[in-house]
């Protein structure tokens, strides 16, 4: 313990009143300095740390916190000054000497305490010097890494992730160095436990967020580089399809990895708060669930490829057997997808602490109950089975169902997807599929009605049409199986007569043949000087017609009536 006479405050003035004023002034000044150092400096350091993380939302919150810290420091400074004035005024009014009270406060200071403060200050200086040296070395290392990345000539999407990682790297390194430096300083200074936890937790949260963002950028870059390299090496090989599938799964995989990283960061942060430790065990469970569903998507994609390679028939002009086979391939792929996700769902339930055995045991009862309650779904499923096994429609067929006409894109046990000529996708429940008109089975007719003017030479018209029909098989590229037939006059309207032509064509080609016939007929009629019909009117010259009157006609003269007879 330091002796009392050593720690006694020197007299700063001859009179008690003036000495009290000096003591109060010094005390207020030291308290103001400590207050501003604690609030303003800590908020400024926190703001710089959040800026290193790089989150705009946190930067806005930190900026608002820094402004509030300045306002709070100003208000507390006013309170401290008013309190100092009040203490000085009370001492003058009571005529008390404040020196003994300050001597009593300083009496609690020990030599060991002063030595600890000195050692802490020295350690802070050393840590600051080490921090600056390591930061400079890390900056030089990052410059070399960036130079090496520029030499690699990365694609634009890879370069964007690399640039983001290079922007986040310096902040993460600074926070990492600051975390270890502040940890050593706090252990040496032996601050109160609350202050030690607050500073350490703040730095840890900022470091975890910054590390998570950097890890996400690096994972995006590494995964794209890896998949791109594999895809380039597998080009024109038997494994090309599988690496293309990996390319399609890459966005899902990147999102899954991103979610896993951020959940891991959240779990680490939660463990720092005693009141939130209840939620910490859910982090690994969520990570496992995400990993299971991503693995399921990979399995589904590769099973789909294996089934397609084993059973699917490729080509543009496929016969009915091949298209039937492809239709059932799509059904098997859908069934395998549902089976994989069902198994993964059971595994997820097991991870969540739910026993899936009763669910599996009651699946039959639940299915029967749902089936009885949802008769429309059962009807769709049953009708879909009959559509497939009775060979009514197949993938690629051109069909018409009520007002829907187009190409069948996909048939599932419950719905049928049809793409019409305008690109619109019609989704029909199989229970609604009735009275199917299939244009893709055997042959079909392309019917063209040609309007001919009454003034035209009918024999010449029919000869021209027959000549056109003889050209169609050669120009249709195999779409017409025989020469189209001119059936004759189909109808007679007010201004024209209609000639009907029928052509037996290959399935699904009737629109193409109709367009070809229309073009050839127009060209032939124009070349042979045949008139295209159009509505005609008669114009009368002379005086206006007398308007009709409602009066009853007068009786004709008798002689005139006799002449009519």
TrEMBL record:
One of its GO terms (cellular component) is plasma membrane. Pfam families: MS_channel_1st, MS_channel_2nd, MS_channel_3rd. The chain crosses the membrane at residues 21-50, 71-94, 114-134, 172-191, 197-216, 256-273, 285-307, 328-347, 359-378. Residues 449-532 form the Mechanosensitive ion channel MscS C-terminal domain. Residues 336-375 form the Mechanosensitive ion channel transmembrane helices 2/3 domain. Keywords: Cell membrane, Membrane, Transmembrane, Transmembrane helix. SUPFAM superfamilies: Mechanosensitive channel protein MscS (YggB), C-terminal domain, Mechanosensitive channel protein MscS (YggB), transmembrane region, Sm-like ribonucleoproteins. It is a multi-pass membrane protein. Residues 377-441 form the Mechanosensitive ion channel MscS domain. Residues 543-565 are annotated as: Disordered. GO terms for molecular function: mechanosensitive monoatomic ion channel activity. It is found in: Cell membrane. The keyword Cell membrane applies. The keyword Cell membrane applies. InterPro entries: LSM_dom_sf, MS_channel_1st, MS_channel_C, MscS_beta-dom_sf, MscS_channel_2nd, MscS_channel_C_sf, MscS_channel_TM-2, YbiO_bact. Residues 551-565 have a biased composition (Low complexity). It comes from the Bacteria. Belongs to the MscS (TC 1.A.23) family. This is Transporter, small conductance mechanosensitive ion channel (MscS) family.
């Amino acid at each position: 313990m330091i002796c009392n006479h050593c720690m006694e405050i020197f007299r700063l003035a001859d009179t008690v009143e003036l000495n009290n004023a000096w003591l109060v002034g010094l005390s207020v000044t030291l308290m103001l300095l400590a207050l501003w150092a604690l609030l303003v400096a800590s908020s400024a350091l926190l703001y710089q740390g959040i800026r290193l993380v790089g989150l705009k939302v946190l930067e806005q919150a930190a900026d608002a916190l820094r402004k509030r810290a300045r306002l709070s420091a100003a208000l507390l400074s006013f309170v401290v000054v008013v309190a100092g004035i009040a203490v000085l005024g009370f001492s003058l009014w009571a005529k008390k000497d404040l020196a003994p009270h300050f001597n009593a406060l300083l009496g609690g200071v020990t030599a060991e305490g002063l030595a600890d403060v000195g050692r802490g200050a020295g350690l802070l200086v050393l840590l600051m010097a080490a921090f600056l040296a390591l930061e400079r070395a890390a900056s030089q290392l990052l410059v070399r890494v960036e130079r090496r990345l520029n030499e690699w000539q990365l694609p634009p999407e890879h370069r964007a992730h690399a640039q983001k990682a290079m922007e986040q790297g310096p902040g993460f390194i600074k926070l990492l160095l600051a975390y270890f430096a502040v940890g050593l300083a706090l252990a040496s200074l032996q601050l109160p436990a609350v202050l030690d936890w607050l500073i350490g937790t703040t730095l840890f949260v900022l470091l975890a967020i910054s590390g998570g963002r950097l890890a996400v950028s690096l994972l995006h870059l590494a995964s794209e580089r890896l998949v791109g390299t594999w895809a380039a090496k597998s080009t024109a090989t038997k494994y090309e399809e599988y690496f293309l599938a990996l390319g399609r799964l890459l966005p899902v995989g990147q999102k899954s990895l991103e979610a896993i990283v951020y959940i891991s960061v959240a779990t680490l942060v939660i463990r720092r708060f005693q009141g939130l430790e209840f939620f910490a065990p859910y982090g690994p469970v969520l990570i496992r669930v995400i990993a299971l569903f991503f693995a399921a998507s990979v399995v589904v994609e590769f099973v789909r490829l294996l089934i397609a390679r084993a059973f699917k028939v490729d080509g543009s002009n496929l016969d009915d057997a091949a298209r039937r086979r492809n239709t059932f391939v799509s059904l098997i792929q859908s069934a395998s997808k549902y089976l994989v996700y069902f198994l993964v769902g059971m595994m997820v339930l097991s991870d969540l602490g739910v026993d899936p055995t009763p669910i599996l045991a009651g699946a039959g009862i639940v299915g029967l109950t749902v089936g009885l309650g949802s008769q429309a779904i059962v009807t769709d499923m049953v009708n879909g089975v009959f559509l497939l096994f009775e060979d009514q429609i197949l993938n690629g067929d051109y069909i018409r169902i009520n007002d829907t006409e187009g190409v069948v894109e996909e048939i599932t046990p419950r719905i049928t997807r049809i793409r019409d000529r305008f690109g619109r996708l019609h989704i029909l429940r199989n229970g609604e599929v009735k009275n199917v008109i299939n244009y893709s089975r055997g042959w079909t007719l392309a019917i063209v009605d040609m309007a001919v003017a009454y003034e035209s030479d009918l024999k010449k018209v029919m000869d021209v049409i027959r000549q056109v029909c003889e050209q169609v098989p050669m120009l249709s590229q195999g779409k017409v199986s025989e020469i189209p037939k001119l059936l004759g006059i189909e109808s007679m309207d007010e201004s024209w007569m209609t000639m009907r032509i029928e052509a037996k064509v290959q399935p699904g080609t009737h629109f193409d043949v109709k367009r070809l016939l229309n073009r050839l007929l127009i060209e032939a009629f124009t070349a042979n000087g045949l008139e295209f019909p159009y509505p005609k009117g008669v114009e009368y010259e002379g005086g206006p017609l007398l308007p009709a009157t409602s009066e009853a006609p007068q009786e004709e003269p008798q002689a005139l009536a006799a002449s009519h007879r």
